[in-house]
């Protein structure tokens, strides 16, 4: 058992170091992963998707979630990547608490950030006051916990437990065009415009809550799904 726990810890360190290298290459910022302010959250996790009350398996094993710090390296602000229902999610979460018991600092639709990759309209506005409305999903964590050595893997090993209850909120976000600063125009004689978010309307009838439940990835073949 002690051997398994030591290997688990080494796997966690390797995963964090790897995520740190990804952060460096993608953000071109010289961040020292050992100084990460979200180290206790970071890693790769195997999970199954459960219903809100955890009584039903919505999707079985075979998923991996990633948690890592943002480029700003702010305490209790993480990126979480995961999959559910054929959708891929990559969102920033601002949290309260610590890794053993945490939740989103807000559940207000307007406060929540857009998902990474949920880009602004592809069209380029040509005047001030143009609008476009798109459907977006925003996420918040109702509750979460990552507890050291509290899980037994499907292969019988000991690992950190992983349980996060997420609410997926759907609504319409409206973008309105504005004139960018004159010194940013490509041609000083031709005004240019861009989009900004001016409203976000939540449709709570489309809300969906589910639980990611599993354990920290061990790297052992008996735990593969």
What is the structure about, briefly put?
The protein is mainly beta and 225 residues long. Helix content is 12%, strand content 48%. The chain has one helix and nine strands; from the N terminus they run H-E-E-E-E-E-E-E-E-E.
* CATH architecture grouping: Beta Barrel
Topology order in helix (H) and strand (E) letters: HEEEEEEEEE
Helix content: 10-25%
Q: Give the class-level CATH name.
A: Mainly Beta
- Number of DSSP helical runs: 1
CATH topology: Lipocalin
Question: What is the count of β-strands?
Answer: 9
Mean pLDDT: 87
Written account of the structure:
There is one protein chain. It is built from one helix and nine strands, in the order H-E-E-E-E-E-E-E-E-E. It is elongated and about 70 Å long. Strands 1, 2, 3, 4, 5, 6, 7, 8 and 9 form a nine-stranded antiparallel β-sheet that branches. Helices cover about 10% and strands about 50% of the residues. It has one domain (about 1-220): Lipocalin, CATH 2.40.128. By secondary structure, the protein is mostly beta strands. The model is unreliable at about 1-5 and about 10-35 (pLDDT under 50).
Keywords:
225 residues, mainly beta, Lipocalin, nine-stranded antiparallel β-sheet, 1 helix, 9 strands, 12% helix
